[in-house]
User: Fold this.
Amino acid sequence: MYFHCIAALLAICLLLSSGGASAVTEEEVVAGAARLYRIRIDALAQAGMLDRDALFVARVARIAQRLSEQARRDNPAAQVLSWEIHTSSDADDNASCMAGGKILVSQPYVEQLALTDAELAMVLSHEMQHAILLHNLKEYHEAVRLDPGWLARPFSALEEAVDNDGRLMGQLAELNREQEVEADREGMAMAWRAGWRASELAAYFRKLEQAATMSHIGSATHPSPLQRWRAARRQAEALARGRTGE
Ligand SMILES: [Zn+2]
Assistant:
C-alpha cells in the first residue's frame, strides 16, 4: 500500500513536471526568430549584400504591404505580426519568413526566375503564411511531443536542432511538407483575395517547375515542384470559377 502511494505520488509529480514545464510558447519562438533574423541581417549588411537596390526594395515592400493589409482584413483578431522586410543579393538565398513576420527575399532569386509582381506576390504570400499559421511553433511542439526531453534544455538548443540535427529534421520532414502544402494553398488564396489573378499567381509554380527540371533540384521538406504546380493550377481554376479553391 505504502509503495502504491509512493508510486502514485511519483506519477503525479512526473505529470506536473512534464505538463507543468509547459510547452514552447509563441512569444519564445518570436523572440528567438527576431534574434536570429537580426544576426542574419547584420551579417548581410557587413558583407554589403543588404537592400542594395532601392527600386527592388520598394517593389517588395509595396507587394508585401498589400498582402499584410489583406492578412489583417482576413483575421483582425489574429495576433499582431510585426512585419519586417529586407532584401539580399545572396544568390544562395530564395525567400523566407521567420516567426513573427521577419521576411528576407533574395534579389538574384527573383531576377533569375524573372518574376512578375503577381508571381512575387505568390512567393511573399506563401512565406507570410508560415508566420500567420504559426508553423515554427507547431514544428517545435511536434519535436517536444517526440522527445519531451527538449523541455529540460534551453530553447536555443531546439531552435538550433530543427535546422541542423539530421535525425530530428527527418522526423519533422512529413510535418514540414504538410506545412509547405498549406502555405502554398493559403498563400494563393490570400493573394487572390488581395486582388491578384489566380492564374498569374499559379504561374510562379510553373516557373519553379521549369527551373527545377533544368537543374534537377530535389527537396526532402518540400513537395516536388511538379506536385506544387499541379495543385496551384487546380486551385487557380477553382478560384477563377469563383470558388474558394478548397
Ligand atoms: Zn515555405
Q: What stands out?
A: The longest strand covers residues 84-88.
